[in-house]
Task: structure prediction
Amino acid sequence: MPRLELKWSESKRKKNDLHAVLDEYFKLVRKSYSKKGSRKSGELRIKRDVNLLKAEQNPHLHGPIFFQWRGDIFAHGVISHCPKSQQITIAQVMAKTRHSLHSVSVPLFLSLKNISAVEPEGDFLWSAYQMSFWAPQKYRLEKQQLLSGYLLFSFIDPGTLLDRKRRLSVERYGLADVLLKDRELEDWFRAQYQKSLRGFGYQIEVSDDGTDEQFMLLGQETRFSDNIPFQQVQSLDQLSKRKTLATHVRRCRRSNRIFVVQSVSKQNAVPVVNHVAASIHCHSDTDQEIGVLNSTEESALDAIGG
Result:
C-alpha cells in the first residue's frame, strides 16, 4: 500500500532556493534511512529534476522540482513554493514497487493545490479513520489526536481584534456502548466535558430520531458582575462581549460512535457548529465492524503522521 507524506512550512524570503531546501530534506531522509539498518545510507539513490509531470499540467504548483529516491522502497516527490501564501510544500509518495508508485504519485501530484488557490470563504475536507467532515478554511489546524478509539481535530481562527482565537474542535469516540454503559448521552457528556463547561451558563435541547441520539448545547460566559445588581456595573459589562459556546453531540447507533463538535467565540458560534456537524460522514454501507482497523485505515493514519 503506497504511503503519502506531506510537509509544508512558511517562508518569508522573496526568493527561495528549493534545491537548498531539498538538500536539508534529503539529509533527514538519509538519517532516517540509516537508522533502519537494512542498508547503508550511502546506497540510497536520489535523483532530482525527474520528468514526472510537466509544470503546465498542474498550474497550482509554482516552479515545481520533482525528485525520486530508491532504497528498500521507491519514492516519488515534488517540492514547490507558492508566492501568494509564502508556503514551501513537499509531497512524497512511497511504495514497495515502482509500478504501484507511479500509478498513485502522478494523479496525486496533479491534484495538489495550495491554500491560495482555494476560495477565501471555502471549506476544507478533513478525513481520517473512515470519518470525514468539512471545516471553514479560516480555521487552521492547531493539534490532532488520531487513535483507533478516539479522533480529535482542534482548530483555531485568529479572528478579529475584538474576537481573538475563535476555537473549533471535532471529536469522535469509538465503542459508544462501552463508554456510556448505563448512562444517558447527556450525563456522559456533562462528566466528560466538565472542565470545558466551567464558566458557562448553558441550556440543552435533546432530540432522537431512533437512529441518532443527539442534542445541542448553547452557552454564554458567566461573570462575577452577574451577581451585582447595580445598573452601572451591568452597563459596563455590556461594553465587552462575552464568549459563546455551542456544542453539537451525536450518538450514531449504526456506527456505535459519538461525535462532538464544539466552538467557542465572541460571535454566534451556532452556524459554524451546525455546518460542520451536518457535514460529518461517519459510515457507509461497506464499513467494516467497528473497532477493527484494516490495512487501509492503518496506512491512512501513517500518511497523516500517526
